[in-house]
Amino acid sequence: MPSIPYEHGLILAAILFVCGLIGVLTRRNIVFVLMSLEIMLNACGLAFVVGSARWGHADGQIMFLMILTLAAAEVAVGLGLIIQMYRRFHTVDISVLSEMKG
Amino acid sequence: MTFDQMMLLLPLIIVTATPVITMLMVAVKRSHAVSCILTASGLLLALLSLLIVVRYPLQEVTPLLQVDNFNIFCTALILLAALAVTLFSYPYLCNLEDHQDEFYLLIAIATLGALVMVSSTHFITAFLGMETLSVCLYGMIAYPLHREATAQYPMEASIKYLVLSAVSSGFVLFGVALLYAQTGTLHFNDISVGITQGIADGPGSEYFVVASLLIITGFAFKLSLVPFHLWTPDVYEGAPLPATAFLATVGKVAMAALMMRFLSVSGVLDSPAIINVLTVIGVLSILGGNLLALLQANLKRLLSYSSIAHMGYLLIALMTIDSAITGDGSLGGEAVSFYLTAYVIMSLGAFGVMMVVSDSAHERDHIGHYQGLFWRDPWLAVIFTAMLLSLAGIPLTVGFIGKFYIFSVGVETAQWGPLAAMVIGSGIGLFYYLRIVYRMITPLDYDDPLPVAGIRDVISHGILLVLLVALVVLGVVPGGLMLLLESVVQSL
Amino acid sequence: MLEWIGLLPAFPLAGFLALVLTRGSLPRRIAGLIGVGSIGLSFLLAALVSIEFLGSGLDSHTQPLWTWMSVGTFTPGFSFYLDGLTVVMLLIISGVGFLIHLYSTGFMADDPGFARFFAYMNLFVASMLVLVLADNLVLLYLGWEGVGLCSYLLIGFWYDNPANGYAARKAFVVTRVGDTSMAIGLFLLFQQLGTLNIQEILTLAPQQWSEGQGMAVAAAALLLGGAVGKSAQLPLQTWLPDAMAGPTPISALIHAATMVTAGVYLIARTHILFELAPSVQLLVAFVGLATLLMAGFTALTQRDIKRILAYSTISQIGYMFLALGVGAWSAAIFHLMTHAFFKALLFLAAGTVILSLHHEHDIFRMGDMRRKLPVAFWSFVIGSAALTALPFTSGFYSKDEILLAALAHPQYGMLLWLGGVLGAFMTALYSFRLVFVVFFGRDNYQEHASHDTHHVSSAIREETGIAMALPLLILGVLSLFGGLIHVPVDAVFAHAGAHEETHPSQLIHTVMILVPIFGVMISYLLYGSRPYEKAGQHLRTQILNSPLGRFLNRFWFSGWGMDALYNFVFVKPFLALAQFNRRDVIDQFYTALAELARISNRALVLTQTGYLRWYAISLVGGLVLVIGIGVWA
Amino acid sequence: MIVIWLILILFVGGALAWASEALDSRLPRVTALIAMVFSLILVVMLCLDNSPDPLSPGGQWLILEKWSWIARFDIFMQVGVDGLSLLMLALTVFLGLIATGAAWHEITERPGFFYFNLLWTLAGVVGVFTALDLFLFFFFWEVMLIPMYLIIAIWGHENRAYAAMKFFVFTQVSGLILLVAILCLAYFHFVQFGRFSFDYFELQNVVLEGRFQMLVMLGFFIGFATKLPAFPLHSWLPDAHSQAPTAGSVLLAGVLLKTGAYGLIRFAVPLFPEAAADFAPVAMTIAVIGILYCAKLAFAQTDIKRLIAYTSVSHMGFVLLGVYAWNIYGLQGALMTMLAHGLTSSALFMLAGGLQHRYHTRDMGRMSGLWAKLPLMSAMALFFSIASLGMPGLGNFIGEFLSLLGAFQVNQVATIFAALGLIFASVYSLWVIQRVFHGPYHTPHGGSEPARDLQEPADLSRVELVCYGAMAIGLVWMGMYPQTFLAMAEPTMTFLLESFGEVLP
């Protein structure tokens, strides 16, 4: 089976990463923001896996596992905060979080 | 892993054990005091264990962690700062209508993350450390979440920090992934070979520049350098004071040490493009931070802006640590280490004074709260003034020596632009630091009783005294520390 | 005796210190005694010193006291130098000074600032003595500035009237312009010759400079600047008429007899420099001529008795300058001396009149005073005669010498002489106008006073005691016979090249005798004669009413418009400039910088919107920027 | 050791003064006085034992001591006293006493902290005048600022916050430029000799190339010229002076300004002889502009303290002129101007402070004719105004005359313009006398007579009289026998000139 050139993998990862980034920038709903963050992190993971595949060792895959774990932790904390936020403001629109400025 | 290597990791092990034991104690009996004491003793023990560590031959423990003089120095600094924050937290949290114990857990785990960061020479550990620190900080920042009156600020700060920090982590990760895909290694030392070649190659060097810049962007975010600084004031303001202090000291030290190690071994500083970028970021941070702080009335925000400027100063020294561009490369590293020490002392002192007069129910973070402090509580006022003057870089304080170091580095490497920015920035900086001093000497015409220092504040005042002594002693006779740092940096 | 000359200024200085340190707490008698006594001692000593010096046949005597400063090769000392010129000046200063002090005890008897007055006076005499005794130009400068200061203090003695203060400041500042020129002259001399010792300069200058060389001209011109300022010559004469705001004895001592002649002394002292710079010396002559004419015409139109005398002083010093300018050094000093006598006499007599009329200065509000104040009257007549140079008075001899010397000038002799003679005519005219209006005619004071509520007591005061009369008497004698004194300055000017004795024709002599007499007669016709009173008045009104007459009257009355001119050229622009930039533009610049920082702060703070999405965008934007710089820049 | 004692006495005295306030509010001033007297005794002892050590560099140093301090940068605690330093020390301590006298009755609020700041400022100044290690010098240079800032900011007048801030920012920013310049020098020592050095004597060996030397020299110049202050950098001074309490003004005008001039003589020229020579015409032009411009500004002021402040700038122009003439006349003239100006400006500020204390205004338009009521004070004002306008026989004349004499040797045009300053000086000095002390009696209390319930302000108190008397005697001494001072500075000046050449042909 001809292997996929690693450049293609990286480009795919970059596209995913940008998609996630755009999601973070454009979505007002904080849940979607968190999801977009997940996409970004996973895009990074993909890039690691691609690299790992190119060099044929496990470093990148281990990194991917780490990313998964930490993304999970982050999302856990984030969801906890979202619940608190919803309790207080009854909305998940991030624009309400603009009390502090200047 | 040999026994020797095991012993080298003693501080890490102790700090790991601390939250575990504390958690177990919480399961047995919730007691604010006990949790605090346990955490503090754990940190203290870790600190003392450094005495043991230095008896063993320093070496790389697995490819992931490096224990050398620099690492030991940073570990000590972080542990001291964390210890101080822990002790400051106790009186602050006493009247919190919620469980206080978890805050200490978060401190301990965050410290662990920071310790991992300063020991890492490998992206896996670096990333692990960064994220451990960050995730704990989310919690610390949002800690007084259940207080109805003020809860939206910690929550807002935490969410902002969470999202932005995750984005910046994404940048770092993607950058690392790009490097990894090209070089096939995640170890700083090995990566440098690839980077040096890649950057030197000419065509295609943009790939490495972009990858490196992605990583640097992420680091710059954590150091809150312009233009990645916007989160800083909001997070500083929204977080409870101990969390702010922790973020401002441990957070910055860990990040700066990691960045220093990365820059010094990875070879990215060989690229003039990256030097240009760092110069621009440094100048912008110095000017932007100082200008933003100019008329700020909230002291937490003000100190956050000033931290932007201080990280800008630090960056001037940071970008010279690659020995390739300076004849005597150690000066940059020394300057960074010294400045970090100074910055930890000054920040802890400033936030410490604020913590002493505040509690979780009522934070005194407005400049007006400090009006007439000189006549209401001369002791605190003198400490606060000393800290502010040190931040402004006035002699007799450690801040002056720190600035002197940075200026020396700037002159040595002929960075006239950043030096000019530093002179201008210091001028602007004086204005807002002195504004606070002036408010403190302006008599107050109404009554605003400060909390009376009780028995539980003894430790806080003790720490403040220690900080003041350190500030002056290192400001007047810095020779010893300088010699120490010289040897520390040579191990890099 | 000669080694004691250090004590000459020390006596008055001690008097000054005593009066100042007791802060007016001494009784008047004691204060007066200290004030007059110290000058008396100085005079005695001066007389003894002079006798010994003149008897010893020495050319000069130097008495070093201490080294003032020693910087590199610059080592001026507190050293006093005595020669014939100094002796003359010493005697004039201490002698006339003593008489005026004595007079002042009467004149100032009722003044609350009695002790202060004598303190200043003593300080003045001390400074003046230092000025003439100095053996180097720096010490001379000390005396020079010292007398200027005392002049300032005494003009503004009655400080509660702002006009006096104005006059005092004007005097100080205008003379300071001259002084500054002189100071620059000193710098130049030191730079060129390496010393400021007067005798060394006079020896070195001819060796280093040829006649008419640029440096010599510059040095002489700069010194002339100082002399012109101090001696109230064109173009710096404007301060002297205003200086009459001070008490009259001051005008007599400082603004007639001594200080204003310091310029003459300076030029005479450094005459060798002027001889090296013929163009400047000629300038001196023409400055003198222009001043004497200008002041003469102005004096004719004044109404204030002291201003008339002030302009007359300016005019007479003009004669001295004329003498200096034609190289008649000893004639200048001679005239300086006789002028000191008769002008002091005139001022003191005027003081008596003024005091008796309760400080009335306007001559047209006086009249018929000769019966009420006989001593003053006779003093005035004698003084005016000497001033006018009527034959056989002291002024006759001195002025005669000057005019003859002027005539002998190789190029401009006739011009200078004619001008001098015209000046003499004017002198006769205005001085006897004064005599006739004040002492003859109708008593206008009573008339005015009866309408004037200011003068509660309209009675004319009697002439006061012996203290005021005696000085008048002595000065009167000196004014009449002072012309017989031979000033012992020949040795001083000996090496200045002897002037050929010219033998002017008899016609010249006759003209010089007749012109003043003619002037007196005209004056009598216009102002004094009873029989032709109507005609005189008619003539006067006619002259005044003709357009030219009116213009000239106004023009001369204003002192040839010099005050207005200076006001317009210097004072107004300076004040305008001061007002225009009161707030210091430089400061505005720094304020603008601070404002810039504030504006940037406000602008930057706007970026801190608090919106998470904006923050995220800034992160990405920053990344793009950074990569942009890294990759493309 | 005597220098260390001097600094320690002041530091410790300050701390004691602060502490003693707890016992009695009158104790601080006594403590301060005692400390000042002790330091005066030390300085007088030094003056009496005025014998330079012939073995020291240049043979001019009375004291030269060195202790190691920061080994990493080869920074030493090196202090030295020569004639120049000693005169400056004498001036400092003397004016310190005067300032204590000026504050004696005026400072009633928080006296302990006040005298603490006063003494610490003086300690910093003493350090500046004795430090021979450039790092140590800079260290003290900055140390004196904070207490001065506090003096202005706490005990100052209505606009104190602004004035204190301006003072601090100006001096600090220029100080940082100075620091960069010092570091450049130290670094080039590293390049040329293999190690850092901040030693004054070693740094003289550093060779810098043309344009770079000029830039580094400019760094020094800006640092010192701001403190002096020279023309375009002067704008902090009127505000600081007019807002500072009397003792603060005395210290600022009398002592702090002199540190700038001292720095120029000691460091800015000798370390960079060639660049200084090239720069001299510019510096002299700046001096002349400063003399004339600030004299003009002084005349336009209505605030009496502002007026005196501008005259200070004007007078310091003569110092600048003298220094950059760089011959013995100019240098000695600059020195004498520094000393004499220290006394006159202090006295004038005390007078202005005295007026403000009595009439609660500094507006000259609101008072006049005070001679009638305050004859002693008026006489003092007259004396010091006249000294300030350069009357021969008093110290200022010697200074200005020698400065101009020296300047004339090298730059005639500048000297002639500078001499015009003498005329302006008479204009503004006499203007003050006229406005305030002469004319009909009038006070801010309205009318020609003060209101009944207001107490008639008293003439000089005994403390004030002693202060003025001492300063007046000092001025007469300087004017009549300046040799005392000139002789002390002579070896230093001669050495400087011999070693670093006459700057200009």
Write a structural description.
The complex is a heterotetramer of chains A (about 100), B (about 500), C (about 625) and D (about 500). Chain A is mainly α and about 100 residues long. Chain A has three helices and no strands. Chain C has two domains: about 525 residues, no CATH class; about 50 residues. Chain C is about 75% helix and about 0% strand. Chain C has a two-stranded antiparallel ribbon with strand order 1-2. Chain D is mainly α. Chain D has a domain of about 230 residues. Chains in contact: A-B, A-C, B-C, B-D, C-D. Chains C and D meet through helix 5, helix 6, helix 25 and helix 26 of C and helix 12, helix 14, helix 15, helix 16 and helix 17 of D.
Summarize the structure.
The complex is a heterotetramer of chains A (102), B (492), C (633) and D (505). Chain A has three helices and no strands.
Termini separation of chain D (Å)?
A: 41 Å
Low-confidence segments of chain B = none
* Unreliable residue stretches of chain D: 447-453
Overall shape of chain B: it is: globular
Rg of chain B (CA only): 21 Å
The H-and-E topology of chain D, N to C, reads as: HHEEHHHHHHHHHHHHHHHHH
Q: Strand-and-helix sequence of chain B, N→C?
A: HHHEEHHHHHHHHHHHHHHHHH
Task: Present the secondary structure layout.
The complex is a heterotetramer of chains A (102), B (492), C (633) and D (505).
Chain A: H1 6-26, H2 30-55, H3 59-89
Chain C: H1 7-21, H2 28-56, E1 61-67, E2 77-82, H3 84-107, H4 114-133, H5 137-155, H6 162-193, H7 198-208, H8 214-230, H9 239-242, H10 248-257, H11 262-269, H12 271-276, H13 278-301, H14 305-325, H15 329-356, H16 374-388, H17 394-407, H18 413-439, H19 444-451, H20 466-481, H21 490-493, H22 506-528, H23 533-545, H24 547-557, H25 562-580, H26 585-605, H27 612-632
Antiparallel strand pairs in C: 1-2
Helix pairs in contact in C: 1-2, 1-4, 2-3, 2-4, 3-4, 3-10, 3-15, 3-20, 4-5, 5-6, 5-10, 6-8, 8-11, 8-13, 10-15, 13-14, 13-18, 13-24, 14-15, 14-17, 14-18, 15-16, 15-17, 15-20, 16-18, 16-20, 17-18, 18-22, 22-23, 23-24
Chain D: H1 2-20, H2 27-48, E1 61-70, E2 75-82, H3 83-106, H4 111-130, H5 134-143, H6 145-155, H7 160-193, H8 200-203, H9 210-227, H10 236-243, H11 246-268, H12 273-300, H13 304-325, H14 328-359, H15 375-388, H16 395-410, H17 412-437, H18 462-480, H19 483-500
Antiparallel strand pairs in D: 1-2
Helix pairs in contact in D: 1-2, 1-4, 2-3, 2-4, 3-4, 3-11, 3-14, 3-19, 4-5, 4-6, 4-11, 5-7, 6-7, 7-9, 7-10, 9-11, 9-12, 10-11, 10-13, 11-13, 11-14, 12-13, 12-17, 13-14, 13-16, 13-17, 14-15, 14-16, 14-18, 14-19, 15-17, 16-17, 16-18
